[in-house]
Design a protein that fits this description.
The radius of gyration is 18 Å and the shape is globular. Helix 1 packs antiparallel against helix 10 (254-269) and helix 2 crosses helix 6. The chain has 271 residues and is mainly alpha-helical. Helix content is 86%, strand content 0%. The two termini are 19 Å apart. The protein has 10 helices and no strands.
């Protein structure tokens, strides 16, 4: 639990560093659009991962053979990626009407398209981390959060220095997610059980286990997304910046809970 907690706290601290750096380098409206994209990158994957990460933790921890454990990683990952590639592709194609009619921000089109590209990469890193957690190791979450948040600072700040605009800065978040996915994959390769034939879990079993978590998360996070869209339309990009920073502060109490959840879900799932 200590490793996961360190990862949560340190990763979130890097997230605040990112907001501070962007606040000092961007104009108020640009900062608002960036904070809008950052909140979408943080909130949407929690919904679109559809509880499948918890299914991965449950079935990996429950499996008794190396082949069964690998299969328990494979099916949830495939389900999550298929769903999120579809969602990300749809958001990319509909970026203009979404930016204009949902968020009321005509200059957010490129930023929204970059956000759509970030979505499946972020989910891929989360799913690999969940597979590692199923092996009762917290190193996956530590690696994911530190590498992802550190990468966001590096790539986003480089985009600012290059004058890439909000779309380029958000593409920096996509690059950070890609690096985090690679780092998690390397971590998984080190601890991955070898031997035997891979035995994938049935898709029906994964969906059957995941849907209550999907509904619970979707209800809670959808309110946050609706509030974000409401603020964006009501007070504009500048107001979104203030709202986004306040929302980030409000999520601090969840750090300890998340650490507890990822550390003990494998044990609880076997009860």
């Amino acid at each position: 639990m200590a490793v996961a907690m360190v990862g949560s706290i340190f990763g979130s601290s890097l997230g605040f560093v990112l907001l501070v750096l962007m606040g000092r380098r961007l104009a108020p409206d640009e900062l608002g659009l960036f904070v809008l994209a950052l909140n979408l990158v943080n909130l949407v994957p929690q919904i679109t991962i559809a509880g499948v990460d918890y299914a991965a933790i449950r079935y990996v921890s429950e499996a008794r053979t190396p082949g069964a454990k690998r299969g328990a990683m494979l099916t949830p990952f495939a389900v999550a990626m298929a769903f999120n590639l579809a969602i990300g592709g749809s958001a990319f194609a509909l970026a203009r009407p979404l930016a204009l009619h949902v968020f009321g921000q005509p200059h957010f089109v490129e930023g929204l398209r970059a956000t759509a590209l970030t979505l499946p990469l972020t989910v891929a890193a989360q799913m690999i981390s969940a597979a590692i957690s199923g092996l009762e190791r917290a190193s996956g979450e530590l690696v994911r959060k530190v590498v992802e948040q550190g990468g966001r600072i590096a790539f986003a700040f480089a985009a600012v220095l290059a004058g890439a605009g909000v779309g380029g800065i958000v593409l920096g978040l996509a690059a950070a997610a890609a690096v985090a996915t690679l780092a998690c994959a390397v971590t998984l390769a080190v601890v991955l059980p070898r031997g035997g034939r891979t035995q994938p879990v049935a898709v029906r079993a994964v969906v059957g286990f995941a849907w209550p978590q999907t509904v619970a998360t979707a209800v809670g996070r959808s309110w946050s997304l609706l509030m974000l869209a409401f603020v964006s339309n009501l007070v504009g990009a500048h107001g979104v910046a203030i709202f986004g920073i306040a929302a980030a502060l409000s999520r601090l109490p969840g750090l300890v809970y998340n650490s507890f959840t990822y550390r003990f879900t494998p044990t609880i799932s076997r009860l």
